[in-house]
Protein backbone atom coordinates (compact mmCIF):
# COMPACT_ATOMS: atom_id res chain seq x y z
CA UNK A 1 0.00 0.00 0.00
CA UNK A 2 1.47 3.35 -1.00
CA UNK A 3 1.29 6.36 1.30
CA UNK A 4 -1.67 7.85 -0.56
CA UNK A 5 -3.81 4.74 -0.89
CA UNK A 6 -6.86 3.89 1.18
CA UNK A 7 -6.94 0.24 2.25
CA UNK A 8 -9.75 -1.94 3.61
CA UNK A 9 -9.40 -5.09 5.72
CA UNK A 10 -12.33 -7.53 5.73
CA UNK A 11 -11.72 -9.54 8.87
CA UNK A 12 -13.57 -12.74 9.76
CA UNK A 13 -14.07 -12.77 13.53
CA UNK A 14 -15.69 -16.17 14.00
CA UNK A 15 -19.18 -17.24 14.99
CA UNK A 16 -19.29 -15.48 18.37
CA UNK A 17 -16.77 -17.11 20.68
CA UNK A 18 -13.95 -14.62 21.37
CA UNK A 19 -11.59 -17.61 21.37
CA UNK A 20 -12.38 -18.21 17.70
CA UNK A 21 -10.53 -15.04 16.73
CA UNK A 22 -7.41 -16.10 14.82
CA UNK A 23 -3.92 -14.68 15.28
CA UNK A 24 -4.13 -13.33 11.73
CA UNK A 25 -7.37 -11.53 12.61
CA UNK A 26 -5.80 -9.96 15.70
CA UNK A 27 -2.80 -8.78 13.69
CA UNK A 28 -5.11 -7.29 11.05
CA UNK A 29 -7.23 -5.50 13.67
CA UNK A 30 -4.10 -3.84 15.04
CA UNK A 31 -3.31 -2.46 11.58
CA UNK A 32 -6.60 -0.62 11.24
CA UNK A 33 -7.04 3.11 11.84
CA UNK A 34 -10.85 2.94 11.81
CA UNK A 35 -13.48 0.21 12.14
CA UNK A 36 -16.75 0.43 10.20
CA UNK A 37 -19.97 -1.01 11.63
CA UNK A 38 -23.48 -1.02 10.18
CA UNK A 39 -26.04 -0.50 12.95
CA UNK A 40 -28.85 -3.07 12.66
CA UNK A 41 -31.09 -1.44 15.28
CA UNK A 42 -31.67 -1.87 19.00
CA UNK A 43 -32.65 -5.54 18.69
CA UNK A 44 -29.13 -6.39 17.55
CA UNK A 45 -27.16 -4.08 19.83
CA UNK A 46 -25.45 -7.18 21.18
CA UNK A 47 -23.66 -7.71 17.88
CA UNK A 48 -21.98 -4.30 18.12
CA UNK A 49 -21.25 -4.89 21.80
CA UNK A 50 -19.42 -8.13 20.98
CA UNK A 51 -17.33 -6.32 18.37
CA UNK A 52 -16.41 -3.66 20.92
CA UNK A 53 -15.38 -6.36 23.40
CA UNK A 54 -13.08 -7.93 20.82
CA UNK A 55 -11.55 -4.55 20.01
CA UNK A 56 -11.10 -3.64 23.67
CA UNK A 57 -9.39 -6.95 24.34
CA UNK A 58 -7.13 -7.21 21.31
CA UNK A 59 -6.51 -3.69 20.00
CA UNK A 60 -6.08 -2.07 23.39
CA UNK A 61 -5.09 1.43 22.30
CA UNK A 62 -7.90 3.91 21.58
CA UNK A 63 -9.56 3.06 18.29
CA UNK A 64 -12.10 4.75 16.06
CA UNK A 65 -15.42 3.01 15.55
CA UNK A 66 -17.68 4.58 12.93
CA UNK A 67 -21.29 3.45 12.63
CA UNK A 68 -23.62 3.70 9.65
CA UNK A 69 -27.32 2.86 9.55
CA UNK A 70 -27.99 -0.48 7.90
CA UNK A 71 -30.88 -0.13 5.40
CA UNK A 72 -33.91 -2.34 5.82
CA UNK A 73 -34.25 -5.31 3.49
CA UNK A 74 -37.53 -6.40 1.88
CA UNK A 75 -37.99 -9.93 3.24
CA UNK A 76 -41.48 -10.43 1.79
CA UNK A 77 -40.23 -11.66 -1.60
CA UNK A 78 -39.40 -15.35 -1.35
CA UNK A 79 -39.47 -16.77 -4.90
CA UNK A 80 -36.11 -16.87 -6.66
CA UNK A 81 -36.48 -13.88 -9.00
CA UNK A 82 -38.08 -11.42 -6.56
CA UNK A 83 -35.76 -12.60 -3.77
CA UNK A 84 -32.58 -11.95 -5.75
CA UNK A 85 -33.96 -8.58 -6.87
CA UNK A 86 -34.63 -7.64 -3.24
CA UNK A 87 -31.11 -8.67 -2.21
CA UNK A 88 -29.54 -6.70 -5.07
CA UNK A 89 -31.53 -3.61 -4.07
CA UNK A 90 -30.52 -4.03 -0.42
CA UNK A 91 -26.85 -4.48 -1.31
CA UNK A 92 -26.97 -1.42 -3.55
CA UNK A 93 -28.33 0.70 -0.67
CA UNK A 94 -25.77 -0.82 1.70
CA UNK A 95 -23.05 0.10 -0.79
CA UNK A 96 -24.28 3.71 -0.69
CA UNK A 97 -23.80 3.78 3.09
CA UNK A 98 -20.38 2.10 3.02
CA UNK A 99 -19.19 4.31 0.17
CA UNK A 100 -20.01 7.40 2.24
CA UNK A 101 -18.24 6.00 5.30
CA UNK A 102 -15.09 5.15 3.37
CA UNK A 103 -15.05 8.48 1.53
CA UNK A 104 -15.72 10.65 4.59
CA UNK A 105 -14.11 8.72 7.45
CA UNK A 106 -11.05 7.07 5.85
CA UNK A 107 -8.32 9.48 4.77
CA UNK A 108 -5.91 8.61 1.96
CA UNK A 109 -3.11 6.51 3.42
CA UNK A 110 -5.30 5.11 6.22
CA UNK A 111 -6.48 1.54 6.77
CA UNK A 112 -10.10 0.74 7.57
CA UNK A 113 -11.68 -2.54 8.63
CA UNK A 114 -15.00 -4.37 8.57
CA UNK A 115 -15.37 -7.07 11.25
CA UNK A 116 -17.44 -9.84 9.69
CA UNK A 117 -19.18 -12.61 11.63
CA UNK A 118 -17.95 -16.06 10.68
CA UNK A 119 -16.04 -16.12 7.40
CA UNK A 120 -16.36 -13.25 4.88
CA UNK A 121 -16.53 -15.71 1.98
CA UNK A 122 -19.61 -17.62 3.18
CA UNK A 123 -23.06 -16.02 2.83
CA UNK A 124 -21.86 -12.52 3.65
CA UNK A 125 -22.40 -9.41 1.54
CA UNK A 126 -19.32 -7.35 2.46
CA UNK A 127 -17.08 -8.43 -0.41
CA UNK A 128 -19.82 -7.92 -3.00
CA UNK A 129 -20.51 -4.45 -1.61
CA UNK A 130 -16.84 -3.44 -1.77
CA UNK A 131 -16.62 -4.66 -5.37
CA UNK A 132 -19.65 -2.57 -6.27
CA UNK A 133 -18.20 0.54 -4.62
CA UNK A 134 -14.92 0.12 -6.48
CA UNK A 135 -16.76 -0.31 -9.77
CA UNK A 136 -18.44 3.09 -9.29
CA UNK A 137 -15.04 4.81 -9.32
CA UNK A 138 -16.03 7.56 -6.87
CA UNK A 139 -13.55 6.45 -4.18
CA UNK A 140 -10.50 4.26 -4.73
CA UNK A 141 -9.11 1.71 -2.30
CA UNK A 142 -7.56 -1.73 -2.12
CA UNK A 143 -8.82 -4.49 0.11
CA UNK A 144 -7.75 -7.83 1.52
CA UNK A 145 -9.62 -10.63 3.27
CA UNK A 146 -8.72 -12.37 6.52
CA UNK A 147 -10.69 -15.64 6.80
CA UNK A 148 -12.53 -16.56 9.97
CA UNK A 149 -14.04 -19.62 11.64
CA UNK A 150 -17.47 -20.02 10.08
CA UNK A 151 -20.71 -20.88 11.85
CA UNK A 152 -20.57 -24.18 9.95
CA UNK A 153 -17.24 -25.15 11.50
CA UNK A 154 -18.40 -23.95 14.90
CA UNK A 155 -21.63 -25.96 14.60
CA UNK A 156 -19.99 -29.29 13.76
CA UNK A 157 -17.33 -28.75 16.43
CA UNK A 158 -19.99 -28.02 19.05
CA UNK A 159 -21.79 -31.23 18.15
CA UNK A 160 -18.57 -33.25 17.94
CA UNK A 161 -19.35 -34.50 14.45
CA UNK A 162 -17.50 -34.22 11.12
CA UNK A 163 -18.97 -32.09 8.37
CA UNK A 164 -18.90 -34.89 5.80
CA UNK A 165 -19.15 -38.64 5.71
CA UNK A 166 -16.24 -40.70 4.30
CA UNK A 167 -15.40 -39.47 0.81
CA UNK A 168 -18.78 -37.78 0.48
CA UNK A 169 -19.74 -34.33 -0.80
CA UNK A 170 -21.38 -31.61 1.26
CA UNK A 171 -24.10 -29.30 -0.06
CA UNK A 172 -24.37 -25.78 1.37
CA UNK A 173 -27.67 -24.08 0.70
CA UNK A 174 -29.83 -21.21 1.94
CA UNK A 175 -33.02 -22.37 3.59
CA UNK A 176 -35.29 -20.98 0.86
CA UNK A 177 -33.91 -23.58 -1.60
CA UNK A 178 -34.46 -26.54 0.72
CA UNK A 179 -38.06 -26.84 -0.50
CA UNK A 180 -36.62 -27.95 -3.84
CA UNK A 181 -35.26 -31.05 -2.11
CA UNK A 182 -31.80 -32.25 -1.16
CA UNK A 183 -31.43 -34.67 -4.05
CA UNK A 184 -28.74 -37.30 -3.60
CA UNK A 185 -26.69 -35.31 -1.07
CA UNK A 186 -25.89 -37.21 2.12
CA UNK A 187 -24.92 -34.09 4.07
CA UNK A 188 -26.63 -30.71 3.66
CA UNK A 189 -25.70 -27.57 5.57
CA UNK A 190 -28.58 -25.11 5.70
CA UNK A 191 -28.13 -21.42 6.50
CA UNK A 192 -30.44 -18.42 6.51
CA UNK A 193 -33.55 -20.53 7.14
CA UNK A 194 -35.99 -18.06 8.69
CA UNK A 195 -38.95 -20.34 7.96
CA UNK A 196 -37.71 -23.65 9.47
CA UNK A 197 -38.03 -25.55 6.24
CA UNK A 198 -36.52 -28.66 7.80
CA UNK A 199 -40.05 -29.36 9.08
CA UNK A 200 -40.99 -30.36 5.53
CA UNK A 201 -38.45 -33.21 5.50
CA UNK A 202 -39.36 -35.19 8.60
CA UNK A 203 -40.35 -38.21 6.48
CA UNK A 204 -36.91 -38.60 4.88
CA UNK A 205 -35.03 -40.52 7.61
CA UNK A 206 -32.62 -37.66 8.31
CA UNK A 207 -30.56 -36.74 11.35
CA UNK A 208 -30.25 -33.06 12.25
CA UNK A 209 -27.48 -31.17 14.05
CA UNK A 210 -28.93 -27.73 14.84
CA UNK A 211 -27.45 -24.77 16.64
CA UNK A 212 -28.44 -21.18 17.39
CA UNK A 213 -26.13 -18.38 18.61
CA UNK A 214 -23.31 -20.91 18.17
CA UNK A 215 -20.16 -19.86 19.98
CA UNK A 216 -21.89 -17.33 22.24
CA UNK A 217 -23.05 -17.55 25.83
CA UNK A 218 -26.61 -17.97 24.48
CA UNK A 219 -25.74 -21.06 22.42
CA UNK A 220 -28.50 -23.66 21.97
CA UNK A 221 -27.82 -27.09 20.45
CA UNK A 222 -30.15 -29.90 19.44
CA UNK A 223 -29.30 -33.14 17.64
CA UNK A 224 -31.21 -36.29 16.82
CA UNK A 225 -33.50 -37.95 14.29
CA UNK A 226 -35.29 -35.12 12.48
CA UNK A 227 -38.76 -36.60 12.91
CA UNK A 228 -38.22 -36.75 16.70
CA UNK A 229 -36.64 -33.36 17.39
CA UNK A 230 -38.07 -31.02 14.72
CA UNK A 231 -40.91 -29.89 16.95
CA UNK A 232 -38.55 -29.18 19.84
CA UNK A 233 -36.31 -27.07 17.59
CA UNK A 234 -39.32 -25.03 16.41
CA UNK A 235 -40.27 -24.35 20.04
CA UNK A 236 -36.74 -23.42 21.11
CA UNK A 237 -36.27 -21.19 18.10
CA UNK A 238 -39.50 -19.27 18.80
CA UNK A 239 -38.63 -18.86 22.48
CA UNK A 240 -35.11 -17.64 21.69
CA UNK A 241 -36.25 -15.19 19.04
CA UNK A 242 -38.85 -13.73 21.42
CA UNK A 243 -36.26 -13.42 24.18
CA UNK A 244 -33.45 -11.82 22.12
CA UNK A 245 -35.39 -10.12 19.32
CA UNK A 246 -33.26 -11.89 16.69
CA UNK A 247 -31.76 -15.31 15.99
CA UNK A 248 -28.88 -16.74 14.00
CA UNK A 249 -29.04 -20.49 13.47
CA UNK A 250 -27.46 -23.10 11.22
CA UNK A 251 -28.01 -26.81 10.84
CA UNK A 252 -26.65 -29.95 9.20
CA UNK A 253 -29.01 -32.56 7.78
CA UNK A 254 -27.43 -36.01 7.44
CA UNK A 255 -28.71 -39.01 5.53
CA UNK A 256 -27.28 -42.23 6.91
CA UNK A 257 -25.14 -44.48 4.76
CA UNK A 258 -24.96 -48.22 5.40
CA UNK A 259 -22.45 -48.69 8.20
CA UNK A 260 -22.25 -44.95 8.88
CA UNK A 261 -25.47 -44.32 10.76
CA UNK A 262 -25.33 -41.29 13.08
CA UNK A 263 -24.61 -42.55 16.55
CA UNK A 264 -25.30 -41.23 19.99
CA UNK A 265 -22.80 -38.53 20.89
CA UNK A 266 -21.41 -38.12 24.42
CA UNK A 267 -23.57 -36.10 26.77
CA UNK A 268 -22.75 -32.41 27.06
CA UNK A 269 -21.77 -30.41 30.10
CA UNK A 270 -25.37 -30.29 31.33
CA UNK A 271 -25.69 -34.06 31.12
CA UNK A 272 -28.20 -33.95 28.26
CA UNK A 273 -27.50 -36.80 25.81
CA UNK A 274 -27.59 -36.49 22.03
CA UNK A 275 -31.12 -36.33 20.76
CA UNK A 276 -31.78 -33.73 23.45
CA UNK A 277 -30.90 -30.07 23.58
CA UNK A 278 -28.38 -27.85 25.28
CA UNK A 279 -28.80 -24.25 26.40
UniProtKB/TrEMBL annotation:
A GO BP annotation: methylation
Keyword terms, alphabetized: Cobalamin biosynthesis, Methyltransferase, S-adenosyl-L-methionine, Transferase
Top-level taxon in the UniProt lineage: Bacteria
Record InterPro entries: 4pyrrol_Mease, 4pyrrol_Methylase_sf, 4pyrrole_Mease_sub1, 4pyrrole_Mease_sub2, CobF
GO molecular function, one term: precorrin-6A synthase (deacetylating) activity
CDD domains: Precorrin-6A-synthase (cd11643)
Region (Disordered) residue spans: 63-84, 257-279
Pathway in which the depicted protein is active: Cofactor biosynthesis; adenosylcobalamin biosynthesis
Compositionally biased intervals (Basic and acidic residues): 257-266
Ranges where the Tetrapyrrole methylase domain occurs: 8-229
PANTHER family listed in its UniProt record: COBALT-PRECORRIN-2 C(20)-METHYLTRANSFERASE, PRECORRIN-6A SYNTHASE [DEACETYLATING]
Listed name of the protein: Precorrin 6A synthase
Amino acid sequence: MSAGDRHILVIGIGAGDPGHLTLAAVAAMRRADVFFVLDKGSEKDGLIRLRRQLLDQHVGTPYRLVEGEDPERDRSRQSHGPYTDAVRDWRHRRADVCERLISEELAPGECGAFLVWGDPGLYDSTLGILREIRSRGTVTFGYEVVPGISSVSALTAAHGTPLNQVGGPVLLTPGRLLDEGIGSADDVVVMLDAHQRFTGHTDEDLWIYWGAYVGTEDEILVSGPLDRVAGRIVELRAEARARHGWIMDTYLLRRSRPGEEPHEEPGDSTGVPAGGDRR
